[in-house]
Design a protein that fits this description.
Layout lengths: L2 H5 L19 E9 L2 E8 L4 E5 L5 E7 L1 E6 L2 E6 L3 E4 L5 E5 L3 E8 L2
Antiparallel strand pairs: 1-2, 2-9, 3-8, 4-7, 4-9, 5-6, 5-8
């Protein structure tokens, strides 16, 4: 999404889960804020899709917008559903997988 299209979202009341559609058999993403200090990206996951274990150099906040997922953070498993949030500390290994189709918002904070 271009900065021009993202600018059109400013000053409007938004339903975040309506800004991204499910795509069969894949993970889709849509960045809605892109700044030097951080980003906000929406994701949709089809059932059984996920992100493999990885780390990030910054804290990251995941909020589930729709559906259910399973999250692994530093060896612990968490079941999450719509309205729930988890904070991934910088450098902590984490992964997630769709239990049902689900949508999430990822907020990254850069230092």
């Amino acid at each position: 999404m271009s900065d021009e299209v993202r600018a059109e979202l400013k000053g409007r009341v938004l339903s975040l889960k309506d800004l991204i559609e499910y795509q069969e058999g894949t993970v889709a993403s849509r960045m809605i804020v892109n700044r030097p200090v951080g980003t906000i990206t929406l994701f949709s996951f089809d059932a059984d899709e996920g992100l493999s274990e990885h780390t990030a150099p910054y804290d990251a906040v995941v909020t589930v917008l729709d559906g259910e997922c399973e999250v692994w953070l530093a060896g612990e498993t968490h079941q999450m559903k719509e309205g729930e949030t988890i904070i991934f500390p910088a450098h902590a290994p984490h992964a997630l997988s769709a239990v049902t189709r689900f949508k999430m918002m990822l907020t990254m904070f850069r230092e």
